[in-house]
Amino acid sequence: MKNILIINFGGIGDEILFLPTLISLKKAYPECKITLCLEPRSKGIKDLTDNIDDLMLINPKGKNKYFELLKLVIKARFGGFDAIISSGGNKLISLLLFLTGIKKRYGFNTGKLSEKLLTKAVELNKKQYAAKMYHELITPLTDIKTEVPEINIEHEEKITNSILIHPGVSKLSVQKNMIKTITPEIWADVIKLLLENGKQVTLTGGPDDKEVVEQILKIIEPLNDSNFTNYYGKTRNLLDLAKLITKYEKFVCSDSAPLHIAVGLKVRTYAIFGSTDDKKLIPQADFVTALKTNDDCPIKPCLWDYRQTTCEKLSCLKFKAEDIVNEILR
User: Fold this and answer.
1) Is 214 helix (H, G, I), strand (E, B) or coil?
2) What gap in Å lies between CA 264 and CA 20, rounded to an integer?
């Protein structure tokens, strides 16, 4: 195969979790051109890997979604592709792939239609690390396995005794009432306790994190601690953020895209988890720790499996700053 089109819609975190699939394909077919079809909001993934040769930007979630999908079919049909691979569990994905006219079509098994229209319908197992789930799409094409994302950038020199804090989550998840992190007040208490323990602490974030960062700064900046650095707004893109993360001995964050960047960089990472399932979102590896409360919620983790939004109680996010810091300093 000389030319493969891969479709993976979602946020930047989804694209990072898809990296092992791309890495294994490149190893199996080193001369092959890989084109990744994704949402425009996630195009920065290309700066974090050399396993993507080209991007096809399609927005399937906007008001012109049917036009966008038609555009995808036309570009795929006339793109000279030898194979097409698509993630996602929608039953109509197999029909979309069939309409492209590409001879070799691979996707998840979503029923009889997928079994009929796909070259190989791969069994979909959502009860595992998402990167591994995606990777199973290419089992008909290669035996090569890549376990976790790999972001191949040069690491910066480490700052001694340092911790980087990224408290935010995507604005889209907030708008959808998917509350996935602790309050700004608890984040501020975590930073204060780390400073009291002599750590060099830096706070960072992107445009989506403006509100939470401003609330944290109202509490932290009056302390005028020389060991605290406000780095908010100084990373221009994902590559800048990735380089910044490599400078720190430890990284503390929410369940969000920066978590997956840090995992791809193999930086010692601690991530807040509440209603989402850490077993599906981080690898079982000694360089990443899921921080969770000992609440008695009978259906935790509930987001996506039981609910589409988080509940009002949010007992799964009632952390004590001391418990978070003790785990980080352990």
Assistant:
1) helix
2) 10
**Tokens in use for 188?**
């501020």
Give yes or no for a contact between 148 and 20, defined as CB atoms under 8 angstroms apart: yes
Quick one: CA dihedral 10, 11, 14, 16, positive or negative? positive
In tens, the pLDDT along 10-57 reads 999 999 999 999 999 999 999 999 999 999 999 999 999 999 999 999
- Residue 242 pLDDT exceeds 90: yes
Tokens of 288: 């990443």
| Dihedral of alpha carbons 141, 145, 148, 151, sign | negative
CA distance 190 to 164: 12
CATH class label, 162-329: alpha beta
8, 1, 43: which is closest to 26 by C-alpha?
A: 1
Contacts of residues 52-61 at CB distance under 8 Å and 24 or more positions apart, as own/partner, are 52/22, 56/5, 58/9, 60/9, 61/9
Are 95 and 84 contacting, i.e. CB atoms less than 8 angstroms apart? no
Helices (H) then strands (E): counts for the chain? 13, 12
The pLDDT assigned to 18 comes to: 98
Binning pLDDT at 50, 70 and 90, where does residue 296 land?
confident
The domain ranges of the chain are: 3-138, 162-329
- Fold match between 3-138 and 162-329? yes
Domain 3-138 has CATH 3.40.50.2000: yes
CA angle 152/153/158 to nearest 5° reads 125
Radius of gyration of the chain (CA): 21
Which pTM value belongs to this model? 0.93
